[in-house]
Design brief:
Layout (H helix, E strand, L loop, with lengths): L23 E7 L4 H11 L15 E6 L12 H10 L20 H7 L3 E9 L3 H7 L8 H12 L3 E5 L32 H7 L3 E3 L2 H6 L5 E4 L23 H12 L6 E7 L1 H7 L3 H24 L3 E7 L2 E2 L3 E3 L15 E5 L6 E5 L5 E2 L3 E6 L8 E4 H13 L2
Parallel strand pairs: 1-7, 1-8, 2-15, 3-4, 3-7, 4-6, 5-6
Antiparallel strand pairs: 2-14, 8-14, 9-13, 10-12, 11-12
Helix pairs in contact: 1-10, 2-4, 2-11, 8-10, 9-10
Bound molecules: zinc ion.
Length: about 400
């Protein structure tokens, strides 16, 4: 049974219900995005008026996802175990990338799609080798092995399109690549790869490599590697401490290029598109930039919905891997100050289209165990209705790709 039954949902995006096959799959992830994050992004960007909602909330089907990992020491998941559950249908331990609880590699949705002849892609504002994209296209027991993850992309899972940050893991120390070492926005960033020059390796394997916005706009290759930052494509810090959400290539632009490129494949495609800023800014209890990152994700969902209108047979899934920050949304109240330092109340933020204001109140700088909303449209999207487990997301997408 759907959890939400709002009349505002876009049932037009859902043509192709039943057991029609999903030719294309677009998975959009807000890392760290649970209910309160979606609501704060909604209130500040589109407001609380009847009929107004985020694009991600207007998709035809909705569910709630349990996020628990299979970890011997921790009940709350990290992004690696959560992404592995989504990508493989297997619960595993925190830090694990595409391996089960015993450390054995498990096939991923991206690899299944490639075996079915589809084009595949990874797009993120984080390092392209960070936990979420990595768990769709690599198999290591420790998420910190980012150069090995990049090597496995090139020599193992071979995504056709790889766009995001994390250049530092593609070049050995001493070779800065296109993004200078020790930049003023974060002097700690410098090349630290331990698998040789992987950008050269990618080019030898037929990837067109680009490092900036103009280069991406001009790129025509069917295989694209774009690295647009040393590490994340933003600076996650506390408010006023050098925090910055200004990706060198905005997420919707990276996503549009990925869809243009991948949709040239007659067999369809699978793409993961992640906005990492929601999680990283929530870790810093920085609601202003969490909202900005969330707005970028919603603009990207709009782009996916527009694409699906042109190309029926496209399954769109908008998911969050866990909650970050223990966020609540409160009225202004001088008498109610429940936290100090990092977890002090954050705001006020105007509610769009009104004279109202809300405060963001954080309870932690870590992940929490709250369920996350999932919304979907297109072939197979009814499989996401109800209260489900993160491993069920894998089964639902796999079944939609198979058409049964
Ligand atoms: Zn996190």
């Amino acid at each position: 049974m759907p959890i939400w039954t709002g009349a505002s949902r876009d049932h037009h995006a859902d043509r192709g219900q039943g057991h029609e096959r999903a030719r294309n799959v677009i998975v959009l992830q807000g890392d760290g995005m649970a209910t309160a994050q979606r609501d704060l992004i909604r209130l500040v960007t589109v407001g609380n008026q009847a009929g107004e909602d985020l694009v991600m909330n207007k998709l035809a089907h909705a569910g709630l996802v349990h996020t628990d990992p299979a970890d011997p020491e921790e009940a709350v998941t990290d992004s690696a175990a959560a992404a592995t559950a989504f990508s493989t249908g297997v619960k595993t331990f925190n830090g694990a990338i595409g391996v089960d609880a015993d450390g054995n590699p498990v096939p991923t949705l991206l690899e299944d799609a490639r075996r079915a002849g589809k084009a595949t892609g990874l797009v993120t504002t984080s390092q392209v080798t960070d936990a979420t994209p990595a768990a769709y296209a690599a198999h290591v027991t420790d998420r910190a092995q980012q150069s090995e993850i990049a090597r496995q992309f090139l020599e193992g899972s071979k995504p056709d399109v790889i766009l995001g940050g994390g250049e530092d893991f593609w070049y050995p120390a001493g070779n800065p690549g296109a993004w200078p070492d020790n930049p003023p926005t974060d002097p700690t960033e410098q090349s630290k790869g331990n698998r040789g020059n992987l950008v050269e390796r990618a080019e030898a394997l037929g990837y067109e490599y680009v490092s900036d916005r103009d280069g991406l706009a001009d790129a025509r290759g069917r295989k694209l590697l774009g690295l647009f930052a040393n590490e994340e494509m933003f600076e996650h810090r506390e408010e006023g401490e050098g925090d910055l959400y200004d990706p060198a290539v905005p997420l919707p632009e990276m996503a549009e290029k990925a869809l243009d490129t991948l949709s040239r494949d007659r067999d369809g495609f699978f793409v993961l598109i992640e906005e990492e800023g929601i999680d990283e800014m929530a870790h810093e209890n920085n609601a202003g930039l969490m909202i900005k990152a969330g707005a970028a994700l919603d603009a990207t969902v709009q782009l996916a919905v527009d694409f699906a209108r042109r190309q029926p047979g496209t399954l769109i899934v908008v998911q969050g891997d866990h909650e970050t920050g223990g966020l609540t949304i409160e009225n202004p109240d001088d008498e109610d100050e429940s936290g100090e330092e990092l977890s002090r109340e954050d705001g006020p933020f105007p509610v769009a289209g009104t004279d109202l204001e809300v405060f963001a109140d954080w309870t932690t700088g870590q992940h929490t165990g709250a369920d996350t909303p999932i919304t979907a449209s297109g072939p197979g999207s009814e499989r996401f209705d109800g209260v489900i487990d993160n491993t069920d997301v894998h089964g639902a997408i796999a079944a939609a790709m198979r058409g049964r």
